[in-house]
Amino acid sequence: MFKELLLPLVDKFTFFNIFQYITFRASYAAVTSLFLSLLFGPKLIATLKRMKAGQEIRQDGPETHLSKSGTPTMGGLLILVTVSVSVLFWQDLDNLYTWITLLTLVGFGSIGFVDDYLKITKKNTEGLQAKLKMGIQIILSTVIVVLLYIYRNDQTTLLYLPFVKHAVLDLSYLYIPFGVLLLVGTSNAVNLTDGLDGLASGLVIFVGITFAVITYLTGRVDYSSYLQIPFVRNSGELTVLCFALVGAATGFLWYNAHPAEVFMGDTGSLSLGGVIGVIALITKKELLLIIIGGVFVLEALSVIIQVVSYKMRKKRVFKMAPLHHHFELKGWDESKVVIRFWIVGAMFTILSLSTLKIQ
Q1: 6 partner at 20 to 30 Å CA-CA among 22, 160, 218, 320?
Q2: Nearest one of 162, 151, 148, 153 to 210, comparing CA atoms
C-alpha cells in the first residue's frame, strides 16, 4: 500500500524513492509485524483467557504436558493478523503473488481456526473430523495451485533438483496434483511439529530467513543468472512476506517460549505451513523444501513410520510420535529438545542455501 501511495509522489519528495526497494520494504515489514505482535500479544492472550480458550492436552501424551492444560490456544491469530497487515502495508499490491500468498495464509488459517474453535467448545482434542479437515485442505490447495497454473510462467511446471542447474522434468498438468500434495503435506508437517513450547515458531524464523534470501535472488535476473537458478519474474516481492513472517514468528515466540503463555494452535501452524509451501512452489524450490524444512519433514516422517510400522508389524519404532515426543520420553528436558531441534533446523537452512552455489 505504501508503495502505491507514496512512490508516485517521488517527483515532489525524492525520499519516497526508497519505497521502490524491496530490501527497504522487507525490513520494515519485519519491524511492523514484530511491533504489532509485541503490542497486541498481551491483549490477545488476556482475551483468550477470558473466553476460556484453553488448550486440551491429549491424555496419551507425555505426562509433563498435562500441566499445560488450559493454556490459551488460537494464538496463531496474532501471526495471521500481523503478517497480513504488514504485507498489505509494505508489499506491492499489484503483484499477483501478494494475493495468492495472502489467500494461502488466511485460507489455511481459517481451517485451523475452525478446528481450534471446535476443540475449545467441545473440550476435547478432536476438532474437525480428520477426513473433513483433509478434504477442505485439498480443495483450498487445488484452488491455489490452479491459480498458479492459470497465471503460469515459463518456469511454473518445471521441476528442479537441489545441486542440479537445469530442470529435470516438465510436470505439465501433473503440476496441479503435485502442488496440492506439497501444500497439504507442508501445512500438516508444521502442524505436527507444533507440540512443544517455541519449537514451530523458532523453526519458522529459520525457514523464513532462508526463503527471504531465495525469493530475493530468484526475483532478480542478474543474481539468478549468476547463480544459475530459475528466474521467476515478480517473485522478489515475496521477500517482503518472508520478513513479515520472521517478524511475526519472533514476536509470537516472545509469548510462546517455555513456559508458553499461549499456543499458536492449528490457526497458526496450518497457515504457516501452507504459506511456506506456496512460496516453495512459486520460487521452484519444491524439492529443496525437503532440506529447508528438514525438521518439519522428519517430524512428519516419524508419524508416518510409526503408523505404518504399528499397522504392519504391531510394533512401534519410536516411543511416541511425532519425533519430539520420542526424545522427551527418552529423558530430554523440553527446552533441550526445542533448542537442539532449532540447531538441526539451522543446519538444514545453511545446507539449503549452499545449494544455490554448489551446482
Answers
A1: 218
A2: 162
